[in-house]
Amino acid sequence: MVCASYNPPVDSVDSYEPLNLLETKSLTRRFDVLTAVDHVSFAVRESEVFGLVGPNGAGKSTMIKMMTTLLRPTSGTATICGYDIVKQSASVRRQIGYVPQMVSADGDLTAKENLLLVATLYDVPKAERRERAEEALEFMNLADVADKRVRQFSGGMIRRLEIAQSMLHRPKMLFLDEPTVGLDPVARSSVWDHILELRDRYQTTILLTTHLMDEVENLCDRMGVMHHGKMVAVGTSAELKTATGDPKATLDDVFIKFAGERIDESSGFRAISRARRTARRLG
Amino acid sequence: MVGVEATKLRRDPTEILSRAIQPALWMLVFGQVMSHARAINTGRLPYLDFMAPGILAQSVLFTSIFYGLSAIWEKDLGILHKYLVSPAPRSALVAGKALSAGMRGIIQSVFVYCLSLILSVHLDWNPIHLVGGLVAILLGAAFFSTFSLIIACIVKSRERFMGIGQVMTMPLFFASNAIYPIKMMPPWLQAISHMNPLTYQVDLLRSTMIVGGVNNFPIGLDLAVLLGSTVVAIVIAARLYPGLAQ
Fold first, then answer.
1. How many CB pairs lie under 8 A apart between chains A and B?
2. Reduced to 3 states, what is the DSSP secondary structure of residue A78?
3. Residue A55 belongs to what domain range?
4. ipTM above 0.85?
5. E strand or H helix at A222
6. What's the pTM value of the predicted model, to 2 decimals?
7. Domain residue extents for chain B
8. Average pLDDT for residues B183-212, to the nearest whole number?
9. Is residue A12 one of the residues assigned to a domain?
10. Which of A186, B34, B126, B210 is most open to solvent, judged by the fewest CB atoms within 10 Å of its CB?
11. Cβ neighbours, 10 Å, residue A276
12. Mutation test of the interface with chain B: which of A37, A70, A176, A178, choosing the one with the most B Cβ atoms within 10 A?
């Protein structure tokens, strides 16, 4: 399904249509004169990895902040697992995990201490905290550095720890904001592997943002292309490539077709300086 | 939240030591000079005894009032977002921060007690009074750290916060009974100091920490003011805290 703007979901095999775990309707957020997110309507299906693609400043982070209840929308609605993000924000927070673009692990604490703190915040039953923390460390290949302070970790290890933190309470849906920004290729593909395994083992639905086309290609079942706050296309990479009319199209071509310009030409100064800052801290 | 703070302090005790220097200077330099000059009439109480609770309250104030800075720091790091996306109630997050400020305050008071012992201040070791002092420290630190968090939520940037923090601490300190009795103040300043929670904290400390300390207000009033203002501050901060992430 490819839609230039939003059409109601018309699937070819509607009897198999998976549940929509997340749905937005005309979601909008304005900051003074700037409209960061402009009437965005789309849906994420259960157990899929959905990529929100677009240049820095396209509105991806604002979208994530609204869906994680950090930011109230100016207008429009969104539901996660059937809960309204504004009216039932506390229930939404129980269903989701979130890894911000900025580094959210506490450098002064060890990996395990970080996990136990989060387990407490998320009301994981006391008896299970230690067990779940160890399981998460094992899962993310961090078991042998569990008692080391996070300050000494490499960028890839920090990201894996943060993903481990966000899955402790077994969220139905996980939001990852630029999960691989600033990582080298090896660390990046290790983070990819872990994200996919997470989905396969726990059936977690994952929404991530990225401006890297190869990340979408390797990781995402479907993607949504954002540009200047609007969702300009939604579909699988094959569908979107077909839509360009060029059989040999790359995803970069897809972006040019729907956004009208190259992905790396439209970033603003603020977005770039923030991306560099994160990259420096992870490096 | 408190556990995290405790772990961090254990890892980096230099912070506590550097915090201990300021009250030491006040008591050794200012206290000595003033008690020789006899410029401040404190009745039968030696001036050093009079000022010890004030200095304790002051050192807790100076630490707590910059607590909001760490919240802004956490915002810049992304740790704040992690807290706010969790289902933990906002008021619990804020109260946790207040309590960890209280814990720091108690560590500081151990230092000031030691210092007072060395300077032969007549300390009151009555267990009930010790607990009372503890409560005064806890509530004072909780109030001022939450107050500081409210400011942080309003100004949102480190630079602006530093400026405002500096501007606030001195008036809070001088418009209180920390280093001189309220009776010495001109009426307008007296009026202000009656609205200053620090005054009530010092008042409570003065009656519990030292032998022969007298309070100006009933202990019940001291407690009520401290507790009330802390609760109000936590309620306000819990409302403003989520806005810090935007």
1. 65
2. strand
3. 18-282
4. no
5. strand A222-227
6. 0.81
7. 44-245
8. 90
9. no
10. A186
11. 13
12. A70
